[in-house]
Write a structure and sequence with these properties.
The protein is an all-alpha fold. The protein has helices spanning 2-16, 21-31, 34-51, 56-63, 67-78, 84-92.
Length: 96
């Protein structure tokens, strides 16, 4: 378990070193397969749409995500949230 924690810390520290969108894109392209990166981006899009109050049908239509993925993201947002999505969306929307 310690190795997993150390790996996660290294990942977080690595992400925090990135200075702009171009660097971020290069890093994630090297780190993830196109499918992994697409899945992560899709979950973020789903979370954004859920946060904005969209219904499942519209989210499925716009993102192509399965209802299982939408449910999983919704559960994270509402019941298991560590607050990460909120931090990111607040900052993207110019809130502190």
């Amino acid at each position: 378990m310690k190795r997993t924690e150390d790996n996660m810390k290294l990942l977080y520290k690595a992400v925090l070193t990135l200075k702009d969108e171009k660097e971020c894109a290069a890093f994630f392209e090297d780190l993830c397969t196109p499918q992994e990166l697409g899945a992560i981006a899709q979950r973020l899009h789903v979370a954004s749409m859920l946060t904005d109050g969209n219904v499942y049908n519209k989210i499925v239509e716009e993102t192509g995500a399965s209802t299982a993925t939408i449910s999983r993201v919704n559960k994270t947002l509402n019941y298991q949230a560590a607050g990460g999505y909120k931090i990111v969306f607040d900052r993207l929307n110019g809130k502190k």
